[in-house]
Amino acid sequence: MDSKSKTRRIAKVLTILALLLAGSAEAHTLRLADGENVGLAALIENLRQARVIFIGESHDSLAHHRAQLEIIRALREAGEELAIGLEMFRSDSQEALDRWVAGEIGFVKFMAVYHDNWQWWDEYSLIFNYARENRVEMVGLNLSREIVAKVARNGFDSLSREEKEELPVVRCVVDDAYRAYIRRALGKHDLLGTAFDNFCEAQLLWDKMMARNLLDYLADHPDKKVVTLAGSGHAWKYGIPAQLAAKGEKNWRVILPAPAGQPGSLNLSPEDADYLLLGVAEGPFH
């Protein structure tokens, strides 16, 4: 790392620490390329240049979902035609999502589908209700969790021929940066040997399939941008975005929230994300 890069990294960390220590009531966006604080208007102007916008989250954080909705709303108010991509829903539940947005399915019936896919309705309801009220398409990106769990336990080769038919082949043949990403995703639960490779293959399969479903939607809707909501472990540049890039779609941006109480988030770099959200638990963007 050259001296200029070191200076930028130090400035970025100091900026983050200052904001965290100040306990500001405003949410801030930090541009990781240069450590500059960016207001909502400037953030939206940059996001408008992208085809896919990834906004990471901790699934049970209402503050993160409020921030996601604020960005979605601001993009629509700027005149963008949007869809919302969801890690939370399987692609085989797309019909129910379409009916929800169109107002053709009642709350009770939709809840049955929702809880078959996900949880934390109270935290996500503001986004789902906004999509329904404003007819913003929602796109299920995920695949069967049973398949992912099976690969995580025993590797891709443990799947039956029938299970593999609609799936891309995955092997944990990855570079050092991706291995470091996987180990970071595992946190304290480090794995060795085959167990690590199995987890790696499950993560790759998950991200490859969500990227495939995104690309299919983009091909069918050339006029739309997709704001993709996913756990930060999938929204990182090494996750779904890298799988899009491998297929030629590189026009995306990545926004990650700074996890509360996790100093490791201060080490995020432009290789991980484009923007870092700070203060989202306290208040709206300014």
Describe this structure in a few short sentences:
It contains 12 helices and 8 strands. By secondary structure, it is an alpha/beta fold.
Question: Would you mind describing this structure in some detail?
Answer:
The chain has 286 residues and is of the alpha/beta class. The protein has a single domain (3-144, 207-278), classed as Rossmann fold (3-Layer(aba) Sandwich), CATH 3.40.50. 50% of the residues lie in helices and 16% in strands. It has helices at 3-22, 40-47, 62-77, 94-102, 107-117, 121-134, 145-154, 161-164, 176-186, 193-220, 232-235, 240-246, and strands at residues 28-31, 36-38, 52-57, 82-90, 137-142, 225-231, 252-257, 275-278. The chain has an 8-stranded mixed sheet with strand order 2-1-8-7-3-6-4-5, sandwiched between helices. β1 and β2 form a beta hairpin. The radius of gyration is 19 Å and the shape is globular.
Task: Describe the SSE topology.
Layout lengths: L2 H20 L5 E4 L4 E3 L1 H8 L4 E6 L4 H16 L4 E9 L3 H9 L4 H11 L3 H14 L2 E6 L2 H10 L6 H4 L11 H11 L6 H28 L4 E7 H4 L4 H7 L5 E6 L17 E4 L8
Helix pairs in contact: 3-6, 7-10, 10-12
First and last CA, distance: 33 Å
Task: For the largest sheet, list the strands in their spatial order.
Answer: 2-1-8-7-3-6-4-5
Q: What is the global morphology?
A: globular
Strand segment count: 8
Task: Note the total helix count.
Answer: 12
Tell me the name of the CATH class: Alpha Beta
Sheet-strand content, in percent, reads 15-25%
Give the domain tally: 1
**Major sheet characteristics:** 8 strands, mixed
What is the helix content?
40-55%
Radius of gyration: 19 Å
CATH architecture: 3-Layer(aba) Sandwich
Assembly of the depicted chains: single chain
Unreliable runs, pLDDT <50, ≥5 residues?
9-25, 261-265
- The chain-level mean pLDDT equals 87
Class computed from helices, strands and strand pairing:
alpha/beta
Query: What are the secondary-structure elements, in order, as H or E?
Result: HEEHEHEHHHEHHHHEHHEE
